[in-house]
């Protein structure tokens, strides 16, 4: 009898922990909210989407959570990433191709589940440049340490706070810095050219004048995860005449973990937020260069091997000074797979559809070197007033292979300009 009692006690003990385990599993899968994504009038392909967490009473910073997609009674875990903030946001990728006027359903759950690809979007920093990566592939480098001027050239041409190198998926380097014809060109960058501040004319673009420059002023954040890697960097437009900052700028750069129709591409965003650094306004004068986003291509991009197509059907010869929602730039360099960049302007941007500066075919003494810029002050001046924030948003898709068609470019731009509608209902 004593042996039987001991055996029964052992069974009760095991049953107790069995039911505790069931309860624990149930608790780990407790639903937090249901999320619905509506594609609207556009077909979607590997589209970044997000939802604010403002209305949810859940300690996201302290407790684990995960996301599942529910389709016809089946569940599939989806990689998601928390964007810190007040409130925070959850980001994920609307994977694959989703037809127009389609709804996809997700459930946000409490619990700690393994996410595949958790380290797929990464970064490295050697104390000079921060490199954003997709897997092991470098996508772009952000130079935060001062880069010296070329030997024998005035130190005024030293600079920080720009993107270089920019890579294609096959490893082609697409950007150039400090070319002898324009020492002040720095890969992808956006200083303002003709400006007025504190009663002075200040040129932040042409560094050799000694009037102004742009400097890195610290990282706000660096992030990596399964959905995107990126950084937020504080930059200052410096009035060298008065040795004071005239404009504060925040760069938010993100590289997304996507492919398009199964093709390997680098999709990345640059959002810039501007505000006056003092109680004095800054006038950004109308000019064909300045601000927005500028791109100086490598020396191998020439008139013979480059192509341009804008959303309005303009080619390289016709595009300069016109407006566009997007612009495809591309080169077929000997010894390399052809590569290109689709530059996209957001409908919220000033002067949208945005004016462009595109170097003519005979640029730089007839060599036909390549420069592109979305230029929001090309046709009208812009006054920055103290106490206000001003934002410009751009998305770039870097690709290899054949030139993009109008239909392909329009599809990618629609995801950026008209993102899917995301709705959430707390459980």
Explain this structure:
This protein has 427 residues and is mostly beta strands. The chain has two domains: 26-115, Golgi alpha-mannosidase II (Immunoglobulin-like, Sandwich), CATH 2.60.40.1180; 121-422, Beta-galactosidase, Chain A, domain 5. Helix content is 11%, strand content 44%. It contains four helices and 31 strands. The strands form seven sheets. An eight-stranded antiparallel β-sheet has the order 15-16-17-20-30-26-25-23. Strands 4-3-7-1-31 form a five-stranded antiparallel β-sheet, with no helix packed on it. Strands 12-22-28-27-24 form a five-stranded antiparallel β-sheet. It is globular. Residues 6-28 have low confidence and may be disordered.
Measured distance between first and last alpha carbons = 51 Å
Biggest sheet strand order reads 15-16-17-20-30-26-25-23
Shape: globular
Structural class: mainly beta
CATH class of the largest domain: Mainly Beta
SS field, number of helical segments: 4
Briefly note the CATH topology name of the largest domain.
Beta-galactosidase, Chain A, domain 5
Largest sheet entry? 8 strands, antiparallel
CATH architecture of the largest domain, please? Distorted Sandwich
Total beta-strand segments = 31
pLDDT under 50 segments (min length 5)? 6-28
Mean pLDDT: 92
How many domains? The number is: 2
- Roughly what percent helix? 10-25%
Task: Evaluate the radius of gyration.
Answer: 25 Å
Which band does the percent of strand residues land in?
A: 35-45%
């Amino acid at each position: 009898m004593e042996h039987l009692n001991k055996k029964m006690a052992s069974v009760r003990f095991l049953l107790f922990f069995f039911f505790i385990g069931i309860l624990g599993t149930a608790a780990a899968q407790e639903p937090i909210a249901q999320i619905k994504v509506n594609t609207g009038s556009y077909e979607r392909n590997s589209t970044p989407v997000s939802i604010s967490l403002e209305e949810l009473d859940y300690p996201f910073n302290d407790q684990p959570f995960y996301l599942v997609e529910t389709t016809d009674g089946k569940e599939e875990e989806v990689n998601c990433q928390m964007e810190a903030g007040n409130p925070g946001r959850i980001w994920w990728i609307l994977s694959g191709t989703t037809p127009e006027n389609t709804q996809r359903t997700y459930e946000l759950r409490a619990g700690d589940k393994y996410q595949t690809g958790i380290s797929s979007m990464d970064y490295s920093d050697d104390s000079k440049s921060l490199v954003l990566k997709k897997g092991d592939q470098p996508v772009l480098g952000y130079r935060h340490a001062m880069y010296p001027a070329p030997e024998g050239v005035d130190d005024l041409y030293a600079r920080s706070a720009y993107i270089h190198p920019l890579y294609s998926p096959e490893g082609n380097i697409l950007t150039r810095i400090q070319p002898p014809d324009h020492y002040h060109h720095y890969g992808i960058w956006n200083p303002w050219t003709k400006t007025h501040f504190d009663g002075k004319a200040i040129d932040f673009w042409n560094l050799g004048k000694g009037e102004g420059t742009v400097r890195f002023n610290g990282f706000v954040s660096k992030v990596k995860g399964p959905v995107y890697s990126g950084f937020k960097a504080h930059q200052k437009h410096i009035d060298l005449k008065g040795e004071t900052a005239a404009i504060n700028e925040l760069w938010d750069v993100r590289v997304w973990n996507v492919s398009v129709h199964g093709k390997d591409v680098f999709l990345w965003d640059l959002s810039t937020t501007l505000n006056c650094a003092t109680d004095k306004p800054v006038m950004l004068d109308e000019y064909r260069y300045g601000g927005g986003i500028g791109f100086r291509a490598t020396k191998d991009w020439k008139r013979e091997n480059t192509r341009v197509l804008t959303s309005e059907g303009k080619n390289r010869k016709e595009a300069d000074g016109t407006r566009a929602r997007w612009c495809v730039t591309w080169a077929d360099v000997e010894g390399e797979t052809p590569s290109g960049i689709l530059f996209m302007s957001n409908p919220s941007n000033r002067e949208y559809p945005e004016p462009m500066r595109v170097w003519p075919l005979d640029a730089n003494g007839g060599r036909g070197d390549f420069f592109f810029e979305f230029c929001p002050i090309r046709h009208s001046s812009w006054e920055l007033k103290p106490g206000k924030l001003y934002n410009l948003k751009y998305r770039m898709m870097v690709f290899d292979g054949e030139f993009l068609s109008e239909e392909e470019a329009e599809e990618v731009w629609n995801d950026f300009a008209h993102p899917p509608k995301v709705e959430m209902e707390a459980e």
